[in-house]
Amino acid sequence: MNTQKNEATGAPKVELDGVAKVFQVNRAPFVAIERIDLRILQNEFVSIVGTSGCGKSTLLNMVGGLDEPSAGEIRIDGASVRGPGRNRGFVFQSYSLFEWMTVEGNIRFALEKSAIAKSEKAELVRHYIHAVGLAGFETAYPKQLSGGMRQRVAIARALVYKPSILLMDEPFGALDAQTRGMMQELLLKVWEEHKVTVLFVTHDVDEAVFLSDRVIVLASRPGRVKRDIAIDLERPRSFELLTDPRFTDYKREILAEIREETLKVMALEQP
Q1: Which of 10, 84, 150, 170 is the most exposed place for a label (fewest CB within 10 A)?
Q2: What distance separates the 2 farthest-apart alpha carbons in the chain?
Q3: How many other CB atoms are found less than 10 A from the CB of residue 39?
Q4: Phi-psi map region of 77: left, alpha, beta (phi>0 left; psi -120 to 50 alpha)
Q5: At what angle do helices 118-131 and 177-194 cross, to 10 degrees?
Q6: Domains of the chain (ranges plus CATH)?
Q7: pLDDT given at position 87
Q8: Nearest to 93 by CA among 13, 192, 10, 183
Q9: Is 156 within 8 Å of 130 (Cβ atoms)?
Q10: How far, in Å, CA of 193 to CA of 31, rounded?
Q11: What is the reported pTM?
């Protein structure tokens, strides 16, 4: 196999400095995220793992501009995040497709406000339909597609306007194991071809290790960076990697960190 390392270089693409988030719960402050300092490079694939409720999705939403930090600053290419922007594409666990639109229509919708020519839009839609393996399904409606195919449409729609960052929140969580594996391989293929920075939230440690250059383990209550683990495994990757002893070592290390946090949470919840 032709092996290589990911070319993640240059100034940080995403920077988080002292980022915190506090919610009001029953009129009392709840510190969801205490303080996070993080740097993500151009073209890095970074996964965030941790126990339920540790702030993974909250962190992703703040990077996406869907929520604001209570303290600290998030910067993309050196500019402060003040809200959503077309430099970021989102893919959620729920497919969020328009049921009355075809595959082609759902993907083209992301370009609705773009000033590019109609012919260029058509070419972009065609390109990404092929990139995610949906050629021949252009006129199909979401209800006619499997879960994996629906998620392919969501990925194509997120990429078609060429964001430089892809934010993914448990995108394959609802899929069966076989389809999930195929979608992971597809995502790596698209990522390697289109050179985007990916911030990926998952509960699946195998998935995080298989996909990522780095895995960020969040501590719980409040959320903060517990470990930042570089995954030193060659690319391109195939599922043969899952039996590699190095893969198993990374998995064991990350699971131990999460288990420690789970035990802390359980102790807090004891009466």
Answers
A1: 10
A2: 64
A3: 14
A4: left
A5: 130
A6: 1-81+200-271 (3.40.50.300)
A7: 93
A8: 183
A9: no
A10: 39
A11: 0.91
